[in-house]
């Protein structure tokens, strides 16, 4: 399976940006986490990475993923999670299963009610939030199990 790990705005400096909220680990740790979660099954998973601060560039990448036959997307839309009807519309038609990912538990950020709403969630297979970089690894594992169950 080819899984696209996609990050939206302000997620290009993971480990550096507000580590007290988003953790001190970077995306470099992800392949090792996937390997330790999935063991030998990780050998059948090819990860592709994409990050953009631009809504349109993310949509372009997802349209390309559809054309390329990418099997699944683990997507942290950053603040677009809460605002982007355009990204939600994209996920609604490309027919590539997506898992919504967040480093922080957006529902526990009670001082910021806007963050507790997601426009992405209704277009996704599921949501994993609150585990830092591990959220992405869990999303990859869940996507693979979802794809296997669909076969
Ligand atoms: C985030 C949560 C969003 O509210 C925020 O805008 C981000 C990161 C997370 O991973 O916890 O940029 O998606």
TrEMBL record:
Give the pathway listed in the UniProt entry for this protein. Metabolic intermediate biosynthesis; chorismate biosynthesis; chorismate from D-erythrose 4-phosphate and phosphoenolpyruvate: step 3/7
Q: Name one GO biological process term.
A: chorismate biosynthetic process
Q: Which residues cross the membrane?
A: 124-144
Residues at the site labelled Transition state stabilizer: 17
Which transformation does this protein catalyse, written as a reaction?
A: 3-dehydroquinate = 3-dehydroshikimate + H2O
Question: From the Swiss-Prot or TrEMBL record, what is one GO molecular function term?
Answer: 3-dehydroquinate dehydratase activity
Q: Which UniProt keywords apply?
A: Amino-acid biosynthesis, Aromatic amino acid biosynthesis, Lyase, Membrane, Transmembrane, Transmembrane helix
Q: Which family does it belong to?
A: Belongs to the type-II 3-dehydroquinase family.
What is this protein's name?
Answer: 3-dehydroquinate dehydratase
- Whichever gene encodes this chain, its name is aroQ
